[in-house]
Design a protein that fits this description.
The protein has 209 residues and is of the alpha/beta class. The chain has 8 helices and 5 strands; from the N terminus they run H-E-E-H-E-H-H-E-E-H-H-H-H. Strands 3-2-1-4-5 form a 5-stranded mixed β-sheet, sandwiched between helices. Helix 2 crosses helix 5 and helix 3 packs across helix 4.
């Protein structure tokens, strides 16, 4: 079922939730998901895939989305859950939690990507590149990314050696160099290959483990 079919089935004013995540690729931190039901006549200008927007624009839209949406929820799966279940399953868990946390039940769900969490009780469809095609998914993308970015900036205060405020946990050269020098900290995903490689390498100063 295409997303146009969902709109046709439920009408233009239907409560359709957009869902997206942030944080599948980083080597550290939680994976964060958001679900958003926009007002049918929303006046939000500039919605797009969060990665295509400037930080200032994301921050502005973040507040506007929260203020002007019919309902929204931001949820997560922890580093521990990522380690236990793998990142795909943890992402599906975070998305399901975001949907279950909505104060208004959606009549349909549009999810960025090519997978839908199992067990959802409402019609759902995955849309590849949905974060740049569907406003509700774009809104969810922004809520998830801004939330996660803010958390990584906070993590930088506790673990300043790694530069989390700059790369947000992604495997940049700066981050990989810090991993090699200091070893992983408590919020690193130790099942990810670059992190595991540092753990398995020659003994080094492990600052936090």
């Amino acid at each position: 079922m295409a997303y146009e079919d969902l709109e046709a089935q439920f009408g233009m004013g239907a409560r359709v939730a957009g869902v997206d995540e942030a944080g599948r690729g980083p080597l550290a931190g939680d994976v964060v998901a958001a679900a958003v039901i926009l007002m049918p006549d929303h006046r939000l200008v500039g919605l797009n895939d969060s990665k295509q927007l400037s930080e200032l624009k994301r921050e502005t839209l973040f507040e506007q989305i929260k203020a002007q949406s019919l309902a929204f929820c931001i949820a997560r799966a922890t580093v521990e859950e990522i380690e236990r279940y793998n990142i795909l399953q943890a992402t599906m868990m975070a998305m399901t939690r975001a949907l279950n946390g909505l104060k208004k039940k959606p009549q349909g769900v549009l999810i960025d990507g090519n997978r839908v969490p199992k067990g959802l009780k409402m019609p759902s469809v995955a849309i590849v590149k949905g974060d740049s095609r569907v406003h509700a998914i774009s809104a969810a993308s922004i809520l998830a990314k801004v939330t996660r970015d803010r958390e990584m900036v906070e993590a930088h205060k506790q673990y300043p050696e790694y530069g989390f405020d700059q790369h947000k946990g992604y495997p940049t050269a700066q981050h990989l160099a810090a991993l090699t020098q200091y070893g992983p900290c408590a919020i690193h995903r130790k099942t990810y290959k670059p992190v595991r490689a540092c753990i398995d390498a020659e003994p080094k100063q492990m600052t936090y483990l």
